[in-house]
């Protein structure tokens, strides 16, 4: 068996000083901050292809963003080729999983063609679906006084329709930032989007069904097919506490950005549970089961969609008793312009940037940006959200001292006071909750 080569991030984690020496040709035993100069700086500059104006501020063990991406995907990403979809980055093909590059997330409302894809099984057989989407049916049963089976047409006729800009985020978004590597699709920051969803409030339907006093949790089911082909096995079945189900922003949706929801995104009808892990937002909805206990469907047990209550040793097997269900997603910001790897023309004197930030159930209090490796920070201009659970856009303009290589960093702070960390923390076996500062490499030509 061929010996597995350690990746750049593993090498830096094990011995950052030695990694610096191997990559940048300098001796170990001293911190990079304030030391990187002379031959070492020239070597690093050659590797990046430019001078580095703030090289003296770079912490030891920090893999430059320009090199980190190259080592992660030396052959380049696999791009999605699908009618009606942009060039998303494919993370898996069975089931189909594709994330949105940060530069394609440069909208207040994410266009449908740029919206990420996260499937857990195979698409429903289109030939077996009703020719008229309004004939699609789903049921609400369990701990209710009046179980319902309702068609999409009846849903649209009986209940008030609302349109809201709501962010959705895969529970594993940011997983690739964990070291050592956690299990699952290696998302960067692109497992998120903020479309305008039109539907009815789940709460209105549950009120019509009449919740019993024993109703404490939901269980969601969709029509997607298990990868095994076994029609009796649900691909995934997650649920939530009744308080979240009754939130007026939790929808049974039938339109995405003003049009019928495409099949690939869960049409004709799906749940939208904003701010929590996207796996709750069941596609191709067939059933909402009201439970008298915490739901125990596929994706609710073991380490699935769970984070550690107390810190565990990275790479350890973990203890299921030391986990809690992942609910509200962590605070996150991403720089969406300039694009990672952008080259700005000679004579550029400032970097104009913009991005998006969100924080699960919370709102964004502030976003700070830096171009000198976090030594100084500038407060970005932050727009108010269109409604609760919508992306908040930010922008800033930062002067630069000269041409060369820069990293644009952003960190958001939410309304509870939590801020993005410099490195992904609280490692867990399935890799949930990684939300380090956003880093974008930019080159100003000399």
What's the structural domain tally? 3
Write the H/E string, N to C.
Answer: HHHHEEEEEHEEHEHEEEEEEEEEEEEEEE
Average pLDDT across residues? 90
Number of helices: 7
What's the CATH topology name of the largest domain? Sulfite Oxidase, Chain A, domain 2
Description:
By secondary structure, this protein is an alpha+beta fold. It has three domains: about 10-70, no CATH class; about 90-325, Oxidoreductase, molybdopterin-binding domain (Sulfite Oxidase, Chain A, domain 2, Alpha-Beta Complex); about 330-445, Immunoglobulin-like, CATH 2.60.40. Helix content is about 10%, strand content about 30%. β1 (about 90-95) and β2 form a beta hairpin. The longest helix has 11 residues, at about 40-50. The chain is globular. It starts with 7 loop residues before the first helix and ends with a strand. About 45% of the residues are buried. The model is unreliable at about 1-10 and about 20-45 (pLDDT under 50).
In short:
With 446 residues, the chain is an alpha+beta fold.
Descriptive keywords:
globular; 7 helices; disordered N terminus; alpha+beta; Sulfite Oxidase, Chain A, domain 2; 446 residues
Compile the SSE list and pairings.
Layout: H1 8-14, H2 16-24, H3 38-48, H4 65-72, E1 89-93, E2 96-99, E3 117-118, E4 137-142, E5 148-151, H5 152-158, E6 162-169, E7 192-201, H6 202-209, E8 217-222, H7 242-245, E9 251-256, E10 259-260, E11 270-272, E12 285-291, E13 306-308, E14 323-325, E15 332-337, E16 342-344, E17 350-358, E18 364-370, E19 378-379, E20 381-382, E21 392-399, E22 404-414, E23 438-444
Parallel strand pairs: 4-12, 16-23
Antiparallel strand pairs: 1-2, 2-3, 4-5, 6-7, 7-9, 8-12, 9-10, 9-11, 13-14, 15-17, 17-21, 18-19, 18-22, 20-21, 22-23
